[in-house]
Amino acid sequence: MFEEYKTHVAERAKNGIPAKPLTAQQTCELITLLENEQCEEREFLINLLINQVSPGVDAAAKVKAEFLDKIIKEKTNQYGITPEDAINILGTMQGGYNIQPLIDALDDVVLAPLAAIKLSHTILIFEKFKDIEQKAHNGNAHAKAVIESWANAEWFLERASLDERITLTVFKVPGETNTDDLSPAPEAWSRPDIPLHARSMLSSVREGVNPDQPGQCGPISQIQELKNRQYPLVYVGDVVGTGSSRKSATNSVLWHIGKDIPFVPNKRSGGFVFGGKIAPIFFNTLEDSGALPIELDVSGLSTGMLIDLYPYKGEIRNHSDQTLIASFHLKTEVLLDEVQAGGRIPLIIGRSLTARARESLGLPTTSIFRKPKAPEPSSAGFTLAQKMVGRACGVEGIRPGQYCEPKITTVGSQDTTGGMTRDELTDLACLGFSADLVMQSFCHTSAYPKPVDVNLHSTLPQFITSRGGVALKPGDGIIHSWLNRMLIPDTVGTGADSHTRFPLGISFPGGSGLVAFAAATGIMPLDMPESVLVRFKGEMQKGITLRDLVHAIPYYAIKQGLLTTEKQNKRNIFSGRILEIEGLQMLKAEQAFELADASAERSAAACVLRLEEENVIEYLRSNATLLRWMIAQGYQHAPTLEKRIAEIEAWLANPSLLSADDNAEYAAIIEIDLTEITEPIVCAPNDPDDARLLSEVARTPVEEVFIGSCMTNIGHFRAAGKLLADSKEIPARLWIAPPTKMDAQQLSREGYFNKLIRTGARIEPAGCSLCMGNQARVKEGSSVVSTSTRNFPHRLGTDAKVFLASAELSAIAAMLGKMPTVEQYLWHMERINDTREDTYRYLNFHQLAAYQTEGNDRIDVVTV
């Protein structure tokens, strides 16, 4: 082990990155070496034990804690570690397996004072609080001292607050930095390995950025040259953090600009990020990581400038002459406490611990922590979203700007973030989920897995199910298409994929750290956003699809001056707000998700729709059948699925849906007259906000077409199959990727795959396929039409020019090898208008014999 580890250290050093943390097996072998009296590298090995084992409930942390506990219990010095040393080392492990040995040491006459100090500076205590409280009640003075220390928030006050003046060196990336730039999808496999993954940040050539190896390695040399100028870096951009994978993007940024976390290998926190606009989830993920995100006018900042930040005054000044460059207001003064605590999540956990300790001692609420500013009193009614969040908080509604911690009922985790969520859960010392349902999928990596993906597929399910979560299987399909089948109406959820947007209830997606917190504790922090109302009226016109209505939202917002596509001084009425949609109550839940899903591209915090009760009842009956089928098929954790079935059935026994008050207030109201939409609306390369009429882009050559992603359902593939039924060897390369194996099975049974294959289409396994661009990719520089979620530069393929469009328009473009004219499009659509009812049939599992739990056969993944 020792020689292999040295080799590993040397190999990593070639890339300028530290060694990976020790595994449980390596930690066992390290301890074996320490137990050998002839050990010659004792000091080096002890240093590894202290600094290279991940904290919390990592498997290696368990081995480490048990070894240190043995030293304490045996009162031995023979391993080069004294019992006092063991207490000190246990005190660096944050929480989890180290807590019980420290609690036991409170009864040791010699070690108790030191153990008390270590416990008083530890906040990941959770249910172990009761054990310490009981010792205090039984007269243990050291246990009482721990409770008193927590009550006085010494864990917080011992940490340094922000200085009045902070000198920083600017690293500016002009234009829009999306999270694909910061965490490239083709390198998603390395996301849990933060130092390695951070090398790929900004690896595409762009203004102001000089990658070491374009397409592979980012501007490491450029960043290092700036860091060599003595002062910390601040990341600056016009628009920062749009897109998905925010935690891995945050990890990459903080690896370059943050500070090492003592005793936590390969993670950094802190740092400063300035943006003209910072995407809301990215902003929150920076908060969670202890960084200070600030929105301000960045036009006066450029790479290499030396500036002084005055966080309390709200000023940025030139370091040399103190000229004022920009002024700002923090989003909330609580940000200052978050930075001091090491992040928003540690602050929330620590505040809760302090409150619990003060309650135990009969003390009043502390005034040590800054409090969020309360919203002004209002006599207005509540919006639908405000009522949903209110119900999750046990009140009628939550006003915009009000801080709250809603109960989280449903949590989703997908595979390119699952490894990070696992690591965050171990850091939080989570051994069991408090959220009602936590689900893990493998939709982004199952089609063409790398060896590291295969390892994740085999190890992550047990990690999730052992904590009471539900694990899907590689090949099952897209997380959203499954998770939506497990929802309870009018409840609140979250997920580490930005497209966790519920058609029933409301979801506030977050980075993997926040998602882990929600899964572990059953709540999440939320500064309630304002809402923007989009009200549809009139009748949909012939040939117009729901995807056209999705794109009508930015199209109309642009027309009203509420959204701009320019990156400097960008205006986006949806950013950070909740998108509420009215006037489409007749939609099925599968259709509603298409609209909710796309709120991610608007940078909205969440989305809600009011649907007719009849359609919700049909959806839930179907879903209960699917969940029973999952149990029969051996999916785990079965008790969690059984509980969710019971919750669905309880709702069905007494169905009711919340609705907005007539006098609710909105940040803006956008009305869209459906009678005015007479031709398709697409989003032009390479910006999902750049909505244009088909007539503006007609006849544009199309080389590749992708029909798939979470924006699709079975109806889209039937429509494409019917439109292409008589085509053979179409000119564009066509990719087909059904969202779930259930869709694939049904399409195969109905003969649609056969029709599509005759056109030359390539049928992908159920899952995300091209959407994220981390597996298969389109040809470099090609012109593409896609049904996927977003079309950022290089996402589907290097230098690809990607239009976003409906499945129907995509199929016609594939057939023609170019964007059709409006007349051509409407002529082709006549072929399916008369069979709409058959085309857009959805999977009602309670009406399909294959999903009845008695005597059914296992449904396997369809491969073509």
UniProtKB/TrEMBL annotation:
<dbReference type="InterPro" id="IPR015929">
    <property type="entry name" value="Aconitase_B_swivel"/>
</dbReference>
<keyword id="KW-0479">Metal-binding</keyword>
<feature type="binding site">
    <location>
        <position position="771"/>
    </location>
    <ligand>
        <name>[4Fe-4S] cluster</name>
    </ligand>
</feature>
<feature type="domain" description="Aconitase/3-isopropylmalate dehydratase large subunit alpha/beta/alpha">
    <location>
        <begin position="697"/>
        <end position="817"/>
    </location>
</feature>
<feature type="binding site">
    <location>
        <position position="498"/>
    </location>
    <ligand>
        <name>substrate</name>
    </ligand>
</feature>
<dbReference type="GO" id="GO:0006099">
    <property type="term" value="P:tricarboxylic acid cycle"/>
</dbReference>
<dbReference type="InterPro" id="IPR018136">
    <property type="entry name" value="Aconitase_4Fe-4S_BS"/>
</dbReference>
<dbReference type="InterPro" id="IPR036288">
    <property type="entry name" value="Aconitase_B_HEAT-like_dom_sf"/>
</dbReference>
<comment type="pathway">
    <text>Carbohydrate metabolism; tricarboxylic acid cycle; isocitrate from oxaloacetate: step 2/2.</text>
</comment>
<feature type="binding site">
    <location>
        <begin position="244"/>
        <end position="246"/>
    </location>
    <ligand>
        <name>substrate</name>
    </ligand>
</feature>
<dbReference type="InterPro" id="IPR004406">
    <property type="entry name" value="Aconitase_B"/>
</dbReference>
<feature type="binding site">
    <location>
        <position position="768"/>
    </location>
    <ligand>
        <name>[4Fe-4S] cluster</name>
    </ligand>
</feature>
<dbReference type="GO" id="GO:0003994">
    <property type="term" value="F:aconitate hydratase activity"/>
</dbReference>
<keyword id="KW-0816">Tricarboxylic acid cycle</keyword>
<keyword id="KW-0411">Iron-sulfur</keyword>
<dbReference type="InterPro" id="IPR050926">
    <property type="entry name" value="Aconitase/IPM_isomerase"/>
</dbReference>
<dbReference type="GO" id="GO:0047456">
    <property type="term" value="F:2-methylisocitrate dehydratase activity"/>
</dbReference>
<dbReference type="GO" id="GO:0005829">
    <property type="term" value="C:cytosol"/>
</dbReference>
<dbReference type="InterPro" id="IPR015931">
    <property type="entry name" value="Acnase/IPM_dHydase_lsu_aba_1/3"/>
</dbReference>
<dbReference type="GO" id="GO:0003730">
    <property type="term" value="F:mRNA 3'-UTR binding"/>
</dbReference>
<comment type="pathway">
    <text>Organic acid metabolism; propanoate degradation.</text>
</comment>
<dbReference type="Pfam" id="PF06434">
    <property type="entry name" value="Aconitase_2_N"/>
</dbReference>
<keyword id="KW-0004">4Fe-4S</keyword>
<feature type="binding site">
    <location>
        <position position="795"/>
    </location>
    <ligand>
        <name>substrate</name>
    </ligand>
</feature>
<comment type="similarity">
    <text>Belongs to the aconitase/IPM isomerase family.</text>
</comment>
<dbReference type="InterPro" id="IPR015933">
    <property type="entry name" value="Aconitase_B_HEAT-like_dom"/>
</dbReference>
<dbReference type="GO" id="GO:0046872">
    <property type="term" value="F:metal ion binding"/>
</dbReference>
<dbReference type="Pfam" id="PF00330">
    <property type="entry name" value="Aconitase"/>
</dbReference>
<feature type="binding site">
    <location>
        <position position="191"/>
    </location>
    <ligand>
        <name>substrate</name>
    </ligand>
</feature>
<protein>
    <recommendedName>
        <fullName>Aconitate hydratase B</fullName>
        <ecNumber>4.2.1.3</ecNumber>
        <ecNumber>4.2.1.99</ecNumber>
    </recommendedName>
</protein>
<dbReference type="Pfam" id="PF11791">
    <property type="entry name" value="Aconitase_B_N"/>
</dbReference>
<feature type="domain" description="Aconitase B swivel">
    <location>
        <begin position="168"/>
        <end position="382"/>
    </location>
</feature>
<feature type="binding site">
    <location>
        <position position="710"/>
    </location>
    <ligand>
        <name>[4Fe-4S] cluster</name>
    </ligand>
</feature>
<dbReference type="InterPro" id="IPR036008">
    <property type="entry name" value="Aconitase_4Fe-4S_dom"/>
</dbReference>
<feature type="binding site">
    <location>
        <position position="790"/>
    </location>
    <ligand>
        <name>substrate</name>
    </ligand>
</feature>
<dbReference type="InterPro" id="IPR015932">
    <property type="entry name" value="Aconitase_dom2"/>
</dbReference>
<dbReference type="InterPro" id="IPR001030">
    <property type="entry name" value="Acoase/IPM_deHydtase_lsu_aba"/>
</dbReference>
<feature type="domain" description="Aconitase B HEAT-like">
    <location>
        <begin position="4"/>
        <end position="156"/>
    </location>
</feature>
<dbReference type="GO" id="GO:0051539">
    <property type="term" value="F:4 iron, 4 sulfur cluster binding"/>
</dbReference>
<feature type="binding site">
    <location>
        <begin position="414"/>
        <end position="416"/>
    </location>
    <ligand>
        <name>substrate</name>
    </ligand>
</feature>
<dbReference type="GO" id="GO:0019629">
    <property type="term" value="P:propionate catabolic process, 2-methylcitrate cycle"/>
</dbReference>
<dbReference type="InterPro" id="IPR015928">
    <property type="entry name" value="Aconitase/3IPM_dehydase_swvl"/>
</dbReference>
